[in-house]
Write a structure and sequence with these properties.
21 helices; about 60% helix
Amino acid sequence: INAEYGGCVVTRYRLLGNVYQRRVRGHGNTRLIMLLEWACLDFCYPEGDYGGHGNSFFGEGGYQTRRAQLRYTVRVLLSVVRTGNENVIQDLCDQGLIASLIVVLKKYQDTDVPIELSILSNSLLILSVVCEHDSQRKGTFGDEGVTLLLKFLSLDSEKFSSGLGYHKLLLSSVNAIWCCVSFMNQDLFLERGGIPILLDLLERCPPSMQNLVLGALLDLTEDARAVPHVVTWRGAGQKTAVSLLIELWRTEEQVMGVKRDKNHIMADPTTPLQGLEQLNSDISAHALSSTPTLAILDVADNMRAKIYAMLFRIGFENLNPTSAKDQITLTLIENYLDFKVGEVWEEIIAELMLDNITPIKSDREALKQIQTVIAAKSEAVKRHQMEILERESRVELEEEQACYQQIKFNFKQWEQQNASRINFINKTSDYETLQISKQRQSALAEKSKQNPPGMRDTVEHETLLKMLTTTVHSGRHINVPLSDNPRLTSPHKVLPAISPTRKSERSVVTQ
């Protein structure tokens, strides 16, 4: 039964997919919606009265469920809406196609079964085709659809290469952003944190998907309210969106084989953007007027144009990369449009020469002036990059010198402390040294006295005790640590002031 049923559904709509009148007379759209709702009931009511056996080609993955019928029903619906017949699509939407597909998305949102992932992917593709050019249908997609879409975009990156079909679900979700979210549901998407989710996805998705994700993100930033979400985003290791885009630019140029040195400075100012494919190509192969040139194809083949557009919307004057390498790369990105225009003019000149066409004098002067301006622009950008590198080298040298000065200062402090300690030991072990120190102390004390006029007949009292054998300022008590072992050390014992010493030095008190 499973095989006959699935085969009939597929064969019928393969044969009648473009026969609109016969499908209308047979109420084909109504029957498809009824079939879709019937296939969904299996998940809503597990005690249903039907369950497949999954023992045939068309019944694969549908054991004790109606998933096999649901999978082929969704495929048939996808084939129908892809015909582009607006009357058929409107009829399906009037009968609740969008609401029914959202129910399917809600029921299978937490699945990891390949057949269910395939159902989700095809359902999102149907919604994308249906909602792409109709704002009313985007409104029907609404809050629930945006919430489910964000959940699919937040999938674990480890699942992308699992082989279960998560990569198809991810691509279908990104496609749904363009068709179901842009403009109509963009406010909901921004409120639910859609921009940070897309940036997280851009950071962790495979390189083959980054171009599509960046394109969707660029489309959303046409709304100025999305730009602050991009600026405030932080990724792994507190990476900013600007740093992520600059890193993607460097990776893209490395894959293309653009000539750069180890610091990512232009190695050849005459080819600031060209990769190996452009350098090794023959201009005659693209000389036909109907064939886009390599300079134009390059815009669509890689992410550099999208990265430039994204940073342009953020504002180059608001970008403050921290590292010199990022500043050097940002200088290239900021002049991307000028360099690309220069490439197009170079191809125009090469095609004119290939066709043996000689421009008139004014045109020749204009073309020569264009070449001169582009060459000067490339040289200026390279000089600016070298200045950034030299400034970074000076900063690193100054930081290194400051570090050495700190080390030298710390060593000088250690020398002063060591000299003070040796001097203290000498005063306690050599009587002559002690007398010299005592005389120096007395001389300093005399110099510190004030002798104001009119105070000559007053009595001056001695501030120092006679026969005192100390050479430091005396107090009433001294502290003597009993032991250096922290386990045996007790609170310092307080003794009468006989020979006060520094707290940091051990002294022997005799009574």
